[in-house]
Design a protein that fits this description.
By secondary structure, this protein is of the alpha/beta class. It has helices spanning 49-56, 84-93, 112-124, 128-141, 158-171, 188-205, 216-222, 240-245, 250-257, 297-301, 318-321, 327-333, and strands at residues 5-17, 22-34, 38-42, 65-74, 77-78, 95-98, 176-180, 208-213, 225-230, 233-239, 306-310, 313-316. α5 packs parallel to α6 (188-205). The radius of gyration is 21 Å and the shape is globular. The two termini are 32 Å apart. The structure holds adenosine-5'-triphosphate and nickel (II) ion (NI).
């Protein structure tokens, strides 16, 4: 693994403009990913995770979506300024995307083998028969017997379809895979198998992965680093070890608390009180302050800055900026 930054998102702002309101979906977001690294992007529904991933490939529907500012540097090139042709080249060769529903990517009227072969054919400019040969190997790589080459998507289970999508997404040897809840629709056992497959492939092909999920367990299984997203912002980021062993942001602390423990009964769960703020009318100051048990007056007025707490662990919270102290929080995150 090298330290070279493959992807660097700087100050990204994305809005959805409808007739009478503006949804502030992604707000001043900074995020970077090294070659070969996998980063989990975690947050509640509506946090802006999908919008972030879609904007990397400029797949946010416009209208209503508008990227109002920012830079998305991929190998140093700003994708937000890139021409359509270049983006198409990037999409087919360097970055691929996996969605929750495999049928977003699969065509019901072609056999799964031919769909994979098509990607290989376009990417490698080899002969059709070579592409078919490689597609059959690719099926085996993702754990599907090559005898099933000629079958159609509807003949496969959800987990098997998602394996086909994974085969298609790695067929062009991408440097980066954006996976938006790739296993959410699958049942738990199958989910574990698909995640293990993604893990193996990531190591084998040294692919970087941006994995969007609600599930911190999935992050622990697959990712090197994790970013916690709230109301369109990253509020905490670090290695999985840093964040899981020592969550710092009150929101992250709440997220971990709301995970059912094996030895805990469901009625002992402590979900975070309150709701995500209305994205058309975000609160001033820290966007988490209305729900934060530790908020002080400053939090209601001023935006905290991203502050390095230790190692590569960064958090956006006044208490950890060291400017203000909350003894309660200090107790809690000790
Ligand atoms: N096409 C759209 N038009 C208007 N608002 C949208 C559109 N797409 C998304 N939004 C809004 O943008 C915000 C961010 O949505 P996004 O889908 O990025 O969140 P998410 O974190 O991926 O959520 P989920 O976990 O539910 O997938 C939400 O408030 C959502 O309602
Ligand atoms: Ni989403």
């Amino acid at each position: 693994m090298t330290d070279r930054k493959l992807l660097e998102i700087r100050n990204l702002n994305v809005e959805y403009r409808t007739d009478d309101e503006i949804v502030y979906a992604v707000n001043s977001l900074d995020l970077s990913l090294n070659s070969g690294e996998s980063l989990g992007l975690v947050g509640e529904t509506g946090a802006g995770k999908s919008t972030t991933a879609l904007s990397i490939l400029q797949l946010v529907a416009d209208p209503p979506g508008k990227t109002t500012s920012g830079e998305i540097l991929f190998e140093g090139e700003d994708l937000l300024k890139a021409k359509k042709d270049f983006l198409r080249h990037i999409r087919g060769n360097k970055i691929s995307m996996i969605f929750q529903d495999p049928m977003t990517s699969l065509n019901p009227v072609y056999s799964v083998g031919d769909q994979i072969a098509e990607v290989i054919y376009l990417h490698e400019k080899c002969s059709k028969s070579e592409a078919q040969q490689k597609a059959a190997e690719m099926l085996e790589t993702v754990g599907i017997p090559k005898e099933r080459y000629d079958e159609y998507p509807h003949q496969f289970s959800g987990g098997m379809k998602q394996r086909v999508v994974i085969a298609m997404s790695i067929a062009c040897s991408p440097q980066l895979i954006l996976a938006d809840e790739p296993t959410t629709a699958l049942d738990v056992t199958i989910q574990a198998q698909v995640l293990e497959l993604m893990n193996d492939l990531k190591v084998k092909f040294n692919t970087s992965l941006l994995l969007i999920t609600h599930d911190l367990g999935v992050v622990a299984q697959v990712c090197d680093r994790v970013a916690i997203m709230y109301a369109g912002e990253i509020v905490e980021i670090g290695t999985v070890e840093e964040v899981f062993e020592n969550p710092k942001h009150p929101y992250t602390v709440g997220l971990f608390r709301s995970i059912p423990q094996l030895d805990e009964k469901v009625d002992r769960l402590k979900p975070i009180k309150g709701q995500m703020p209305d994205p058309t009318n975000l609160p001033s100051g820290c966007k988490f302050h209305p729900r934060c048990p530790h908020a002080i007056e400053a939090c209601t007025k001023i935006q905290p800055a991203m502050t390095n707490v230790k190692g590569t662990h960064i958090v956006k919270c006044f208490i950890h900026e060291g400017k203000f102290e909350s003894t309660e929080l200090m107790e809690e995150v000790k």
